[in-house]
Amino acid sequence: MVLEAFLFGASGLIIGSFVNVLILREGKRDLMGRSACPSCRTVLKVVDLVPVFSFVYLGGACRYCKNRISLQYPLVEIGTALLFVLVGLSPLPIELKILGVLIMALFVAITVYDIYHTVIPDVWSYAAGVVAFVYGLLAMEEASQITYVVLGALATATPLFSLWLVSRGKWMGLGDVKLAFTIGFLLGPIAGPFAILCAFIIGAVVSVCILLPLPVLLAYAEKIGITPLSRGAPRFTMESEVPFGPFLIASCILVWQLNVYGISIPFLP
Ligand SMILES: [Zn+2]
């Protein structure tokens, strides 16, 4: 148990640092090539790139130019590691755990990218969809598994697709619809739509409790010397477009993991 948590946690930190690279370079440069400081462009050494530890050791600043490093890097690494441990300690068979952590890594990448750009890169969405489809098939034992998994995706994506259609993409992005397919593959035709409903509730609660006071919190963080978001990150206001992907993913992970750990959810068979 301890060993398993350690192995999944350590892989989570490493994959998490790769997820940071993925987010940073999406649509800009290829994934190969050495990492450099975004401020001074100095190519970083291996000791500067150890997940979380380098950030803590360097006091959250670049070794060379002393500019602050975004908190996003250690947060993504820690978040990925925690999700990996969550999957690693679940009672799932090993093949589902491996597919599960892959989905988690893509979920982290999509969440962070959507927060910054209010767009979900198609490649990540499709990759998550394929992995979730295989996961759905393996998780089912009955002969009718394909029908069930496909039905799950259709039942989950249809409500969001309708919103997208009716509002001509104003209330809902097509990226969210694609993400809903992944959620449906993972959760099936009952828990899938339930997760979508929960995403709207979580979205409403978070918008009121966090996004309204967010400008004040960010201003305070900057005053005491923390840079919570990279430069150029959006400053959300209630008028601006709030990404829905993170809420879909949070809700999906919640319903999915409660299910995996055998914790029954109210209103759900
Ligand atoms: Zn630097």
Strand content: under 5%
Helix/sheet category: mainly alpha
Count of β-strands: 0
List segments where confidence is low: pLDDT < 50 over at least 5 consecutive residues.
none
Main sheet specs? none
Number of domains: 2
Bound molecules: zinc ion
Task: Report the average pLDDT across residues.
Answer: 89
Helix content, binned percent: 55-70%
For the termini, the CA-CA separation is 30 Å
- Inertia-based shape: globular
Cα gyration radius (Å)? 19 Å
How many distinct helices? 9
Order of secondary-structure elements? HHHHHHHHH
Question: What distinguishing features does this structure have?
Answer:
mainly alpha, 269 residues, single chain, binds zinc ion
Account of the protein in words:
The protein has 269 residues and is an all-alpha fold. It has two domains: 1-89, no CATH class; 127-269, no CATH class. The protein contains nine helices and no strands. Helix 4 (94-117) packs antiparallel against helix 5 (122-139) and helix 7 crosses helix 9. The longest helix is centred in the C-terminal third of the chain and has 38 residues, at 174-211. The protein is globular. The structure holds zinc ion (ZN). Zinc ion is lined by residues 37, 39-40, 42, 62, 64-65, 67.
